[in-house]
Design a protein that fits this description.
Elements: E1 3-4, E2 6-13, E3 23-29, E4 48-52, E5 60-64, E6 67-68, H1 69-79, E7 86-90, H2 98-108, E8 114-119, H3 124-130, E9 136-140, H4 151-161, E10 165-172, H5 178-191, E11 196-201, H6 213-224, E12 230-232, H7 237-240
Parallel strand pairs: 2-4, 3-7, 7-8, 8-9, 9-10, 10-11, 11-12
Antiparallel strand pairs: 1-6, 2-3, 4-5
Helix pairs in contact: 1-2, 2-3, 3-4, 4-5
Bound molecules: iron/sulfur cluster.
Residues 32, 34-36, 39, 41, 91-93, 120 line the site of iron/sulfur cluster.
């Protein structure tokens, strides 16, 4: 029986990127292979998964980890009583549990939902193993200023996911260097200049400060010289006070 530690399962609206506002069911797996300073995921607790009692109720029950794929499929099935655009596998980094994600994804597709993967774009080999089950990929490009240069593995991931409904998200803060941002833009353009780029102004946390509007506009203008579609979309779920 395939199982994994899951942090939470709930029904809400997508708060970021191309599908902002779409109704989704979120399955947030524990664990990540990176450690970004602006990370807002609470990895400290993994003993229990908090499972929303009913879709959108924001009341939770605790279920002991690990959860089996069958347990998660049953929760998703119940939440699908509310018409739902897609099931979002998020984290952490869901591809660290790719066997579990694939098992759940293959089962819940029969409920008429799309499969949406939110990933840091650093595990291309694992992605290939679940690619057939995935419809939409929201891939982060991490800039070298997070402490590591991941561009080589990001390029591999972009090529592996290029046949999906793929968009790339780059979080921009006041300390984002234009040179590293443009290197990321060039990386995307080399794979396919039609890939949508979402510039996501950082939500200030852990001492990370917001970029000015002038800086964001300048980065967007430069990116639009190389890519067909570049949008500035902030995180919305904190603004409207939903999960
Ligand atoms: S990749 Fe995402 S989940 Fe992992 S540490 Fe960075 S922000 Fe957090």
């Amino acid at each position: 029986m395939i199982s994994a530690n899951v942090l939470e399962i709930f029904s809400s609206v997508q708060g970021e990127g191309k599908f902002l506002g779409c109704r989704q069911i979120f399955v947030r797996t524990a664990g990540c292979n990176l450690g970004c300073a602006y990370c807002d995921t609470d990895f400290a607790r993994a003993d229990f998964c908090r499972v929303e009692s009913a879709a959108g109720s924001a009341t939770f029950r605790a279920v002991k980890n690990p959860l089996t794929a069958a347990q998660v499929v049953e929760v998703v099935k119940n939440f699908c009583a509310v018409p739902t655009h897609s099931v979002s596998f998020t984290g952490g980094e869901p591809l660290m549990n790719w066997q579990f994600v694939r098992a759940v994804a293959e089962a819940v597709k029969s409920f008429g939902v799309k499969i949406f993967l939110e990933t840091n774009g650093t595990l291309p080999d694992e992605f290939r193993k679940i690619s057939a089950a995935v419809d939409i990929v929201s891939m982060d490009i991490k800039l070298p200023s997070i402490g590591r240069n991941l561009f080589d593995v990001h390029e591999k991931f972009l090529r592996a996911a290029a046949d999906k409904d793929l968009y790339v998200k780059i979080v921009v803060a006041d300390n984002t260097e234009p040179e590293e941002f443009l290197s990321a833009v060039n990386l995307i353009a080399a794979v396919d200049p039609k890939i949508l780029l979402v510039i996501q102004p950082v939500t200030p946390a852990n001492g990370i400060c917001a970029a000015s509007a002038e800086k964001i506009f300048a980065l967007q203008a430069e990116a639009l010289r190389r890519l067909a579609d570049v949008r500035v979309i902030p995180q919305a779920h904190k603004i409207i006070g939903v999960l």
